[in-house]
Amino acid sequence: MKKRKLFLILFLLSMLSTDFAFAQDWAQLSKYKAENAKLKAPVPGEQRVVFMGNSITEGWSNHNPEFFEGKPYINRGISGQTTPQMLVRFRPDVIDLKPAVVVILAGTNDIAGNTGPMTLEEIMGNIVSMAELAKANGIKVVLSSVLPAYDYKWSPGKDPVTKIATLNGMLKSYAAKNNLVYLDYYSAMADDRKGMQEKYTYDGVHPNKDGYLVMGPMADAAIAKALAQE
């Protein structure tokens, strides 16, 4: 009985420690701080690209690291993040790295409610703010569609099928009106019920290597298109 109580106390203390650390660095500004400090400014002619996103972006380097090899691509994805968190860290993790292009992939965790309830308009507002910050600093913007998801295992019942489709329509419209490149992963990866095709995912939300192999050439083409814009 005493061992069970001790285990429970230690478990609760670990949870409190985790919650405290999260509260102290809600946007996880510390995650890439050391790497950012070591990163030198782009050399003349270097077309640096930063990938800003959540676990789908962060996981790209784990499941398909070859995509980044030999390219001036920098991964700044953080698992679980929502658009307000990305907006807070957009300056140190994107602007200060002086890229030519930023590829923004965001929104699915907002729909899942990872940092609380958010409307599609609020999600879109945060993405627009990131795009405006990038443009104000001479950075070309690629707006990625949210990837298809039929449901979230960690947060069921949020109707992602409808919300993702609506948000993607908002992103596509904004990109067209503001001369930004829209990167449509969704159409290439969705199945008949508007979830992700099984062959491209290991859990219905995150791509596996085959999923990233689909996304890679699409991202390369979108980046080239952005770089060619006046």
From TrEMBL:
One of its GO terms (molecular function) is phosphatidylcholine lysophospholipase activity. Residues 1-23 form the signal peptide. SUPFAM superfamilies: SGNH hydrolase. InterPro entries: Ester_Hydrolysis_Enzymes (IPR051532), SGNH_hydro (IPR013830), SGNH_hydro_sf (IPR036514). Keywords: Hydrolase, Signal. Residues 51-212 form the SGNH hydrolase-type esterase domain. The keyword Repeat does not apply. It holds the Pfam family Lipase_GDSL_2. The keyword Oxidoreductase does not apply. Gene3D superfamilies: SGNH hydrolase. PANTHER family: SGNH HYDROLASE-TYPE ESTERASE DOMAIN-CONTAINING PROTEIN (PTHR30383:SF5), THIOESTERASE 1/PROTEASE 1/LYSOPHOSPHOLIPASE L1 (PTHR30383). This is Acylhydrolase. It comes from Pontibacter mangrovi. The lineage of its organism: Bacteria, Pseudomonadati, Bacteroidota, Cytophagia, Cytophagales.
